[in-house]
Structures are given as structure tokens and as C-alpha cells.
Amino acid sequence: MSSEKSTAADDRRFETLSVTYxxxxxxxxxxxxxxxxxxxxxxxTVEGIDMDTALEDLDPEADEFLYTRLSNPTRHAVEKRIAxxxxxxxxxxxxxxxxxxxxxxxxxxxxxxxxxxxxDLYGGTNTMLKELFRDRxxxxxxxxxxxxxxxxxAATTEETALLWMETPTNPLLRLCDIEAMAAVADxxxxxxxxxxxxxxxxxxxxxxxxxxxxxxSTTKYINGHSDSLGGVAVLSxxxxxREIGFLQQVGMGNVMAPFDAYMVLRGMKTLPLRxxxxxxxxxxxxxxxxxxxxxxxVHYPGLDSxxxxxxxxxxxxxxxxxxxxxxxxxxxxxxxxxxxxxxFTLAVSLGxxxxxxxxxxxxxxxxxxxxxxxELGITDSLLRVSVGVEHPKDLVADLERGFExxxxxEGSATDAEADAPEASPGDD
Length: 428
Ligand SMILES: *Cc1c(COP(=O)(O)O)cnc(C)c1O
Prior knowledge:
Layout: E1 6-7, E2 10-13, H1 14-20, H2 73-86, E3 90-94, H3 97-106, E4 114-118, H4 123-134, E5 140-144, H5 149-155, E6 160-166, H6 178-187, E7 191-195, H7 200-203, E8 213-217, E9 231-235, H8 238-251, H9 258-269, H10 271-291, E10 295-299, H11 309-315, E11 322-327, H12 331-340, E12 345-346, E13 356-358, H13 370-376, E14 382-386, H14 392-412, H15 415-419
Parallel strand pairs: 4-5, 4-6, 6-7, 7-8, 12-13
Antiparallel strand pairs: 1-2, 3-9, 8-9, 10-11, 11-14, 13-14
Helix pairs in contact: 1-2, 1-9, 2-9, 3-4, 10-14, 12-14
Pyridoxal-5'-phosphate binds next to helix 3 and helix 4.
């Protein structure tokens, strides 16, 4: 299925564009690098004084370079490639996913406007919408359960300028129907933004489903190796793109650095290979967890038991590599389980080749008040995993180790006593 993806930019297939698009060998410098060099120069020589060419005429998309904040060849190669993979006409690469989100939202709203957002957004985006847009910039924000499009429609007002969605969400892997969201956005003349970080363009292309803009934290799957921070916005509307570009280059000056751009270009070459393996492994891990009697719930869109499994199959070409599950046990059991793991590293973030596990209640979602976490369903027994590309049998064996440690702790002592050895001498 994946090999039939084509994009607006080019009729070559996704896998081909991932490897080469945006950095075809350039012989003009007499070298002909097969990969894009890391262009570190902050400024570029110009041909002479020209009173007829203004700064606004600079066209980075035509490879015109004056000053690196405005346009940089390595960054531009990333922008071209991601635009091709998402099927958009324009892309802007930022210093982080967060800066891609803030610029994309800011370009869409003015003070007095209203935003409707999915209630379980990435924690940082949730806080940004509340503490920057709502509390400082006078933009009203309503958070709703967007699994039902009627909730989103009901929350819109005359002032609604933007719908902000993630699908699947973090950490519960809930989905919203992107086509239905686009219909609501059209009805109220608002824009629809979709954070596509969890799926990436290999599995889901929101622009094709009617979204106006897609953002990514390239820090996750796009770079894919947990060694670079970045973000990108992709869209086709020229005017909205100009607004976002203004914020990226001038309003905030928030651009992806050349070294990170190089890392992202390199990472993208294997995006289809990695995503396919992430999915294979995640499916195996999800099936194992679902069959385990000490797991009370598994949240993964690829499982038949996922309440939106059909929607997942309709709007995505796969189910990704992130899942979350509920251990049948308290916080002590969770601690023992996690401490015994050797392959899954306890760390926030996701989308890298290595498997990670995290505890949303104390890590990614700890800024949310406890009652808000409870409302969303983020319990103290919930764990989120980003399944890497290791051998799936090793990952399952590791989880088995976790369960054994969890059960052993229950059998030998009370929870309090089981925790005591952690404080023994020499074990700090
Ligand atoms: C990580 C993440 C972000 C923020 O990206 P940074 O690169 O950390 O700034 C935004 N949205 C989602 C869904 C993420 O996972």
C-alpha cells in the first residue's frame, strides 16, 4: 500500500522522495555532493547593489539566499522534502516542534478569536494554548472530546478561527476524524491544523483529508534517532504560508539550525523503513500486552479492541509505533515493572529507533492537575511506550521481565517492604 503513495510535488513514490527529494546532487559548485552539505554560513555574498530588489522579493523557494535566518540551503532541502512527503506546497522548518505549533497557531488567530482544541493534546501544546494564547493574548480556547465531531461543532462560535487537533492523541491514542474536522472548519470559516507527529506522513497525510496545515515535531519520527530537536509546518495556502513564514523568519526568528536540518534530512531517508518496522513491532507488543492477565487495557489503534479501529483504517495507512497500557497494579507495581526493564529505557519523547517507556502521570503529563488527568483517563497505572525497531521478541521478553518483577514483589513482601532494598547501602 505504501508504495502507491504519491504526493502533490512529484509523482514519484513516497520511498523515493524520502531518500532524494530536495537534495539532488548539485554540480554548480564543482563538487557534486550526493548529500546536501551542512551550510553553516550565516550570510551569503550578493552580486552587487540593486535598488530594484527588495528584501520581500527574496524567494527561498527559488533557492535565493541572503541571510541564513531568512533562508538556508540545508534547511530549505528539509522543507522541500517534508512538503513533498506531506503533499503540501510550502513548508517551514523550526527550531522545535513547539515553535512550529506556536507559529502556526499565532498566524491563524488574533486577540478576540476562539480556538477549539482536542482535550488530550501534547502536554506542552495544552499549556501553550492556555498560558500563552488564552491568558496573555486574549484568545479563547475550548478543549473538547474531539472523538465525536459533534462536540467540536457544538463548541464553535462566530469567533472560531482555528481547530487544533492531534490524532492519534498522546498518551491515550484517541483519534479524531480529520475529514469531519475539515467539514466543521469549513462550516465556521475556520482553519484546521493537525499535529501529525505520532503518525508521520508515511501513515497519515492530513492535508489530503482536508486539513489546512500540518505540523510535526521532527524531534520524533521524522528525525527518528533521538538526537535532534526540530519542527515543521506544511501547507498549501499561499497567504497562510506567508504569515507562518513571517513568524518563522522575522516575527520570531525561530528556525531549524543547519546541523539539525542535516540530521533530519538524513533521518528522513529511512523514514519508510523505520515506520514499517515500528508498526510491526508495536503490533506484536500490543498483542502480547492485550493477552496478559496483568494488563487491564491496551490503547493502540491497530487493535480490533480500539474503539476507533475502523476510523484508524479509514484515514491512516498504518497504526504507528506508540501505544499505552494500564497495568493491573498500583504505583508500586508500576515502579517494579519499569525498574526491571532492560530494553525499554525510562524516558520521555518517542519516535526514535530505540524503545522508550514513560509514566505519563509523573512525567509527560505531570503539569496537568490530578483531576484533569483523571478526567482524561491518565491514571497512575498507565504507561506509554514508543516501540523501537529492535527485534520484537526481545522487546516482548523484556516486558515479560517487567511482569515477573512486578509479581515477585507482590509475592515476597508487602509493597512497602519490597521497595526497601532500593535504599540499601551502595545502591544509590
Ligand atoms: C514532542 C511533541 C511536540 C513538541 O515538539 P518539540 O520538538 O519537543 O518542541 C508537539 N506535539 C507532539 C505531538 C509531540 O509529540
